[in-house]
């Protein structure tokens, strides 16, 4: 039994969910500012869901590495649903007038949403290329020592994208370069009877690819929702923690986890779709 766990006969709704500890964590720093508690609650809930997403994405990756496209897709569908909850979860802040936010903004100090280690972990686990570039290095440098250590572990692991490409390879596709992968995507998108290709069914692989696009799209919506919320609260002014605020968030909206799958859409569509 895990340390601190309650014996089954003593389990209640409250102690199973650790409610006393959980509900003690909303601690506003500003005096007499009602909306700060809402701000804290929304962001804590986001981080709870981030943690669940990391668990689901890791499970999906492992199932793909095991060759189980069907279970991996089911977990990615769950991830899309969770991201929808994340989007809905920030909407209560839209009803917070800017004057209420600015009444407690000063107590935020140098803190910034860019310091969310779990958000960077999600992008890393999904396989976002920007995490491994100069921008990602700057973001990671702003994390705590323990968070940086966790990120080093994530960067050393296979990503969801690595697992998907490996699964295509097991199915007989040439995946060593982008040209070979593009040919694989085109084949998955082409009209065909269901069948096998020396591995998982093509239909299952095609559905898995679409689930990855669904996840990418959902995160684009989340980033757009976040950018709009920040613009509503602070306009075009600088963000907290020394960030450029809305300008930075707008630039991040269209970052893709899986750009190859988006770029392959043009080649996969029939020429008739373009009026040829």
From TrEMBL:
One Pfam family of this chain: Trp_dioxygenase
Source superkingdom: Bacteria
InterPro entries (UniProt xref): Trp/Indoleamine_2_3_dOase-like, Trp_2_3_dOase
Protein name, UniProt field: Tryptophan 2,3-dioxygenase
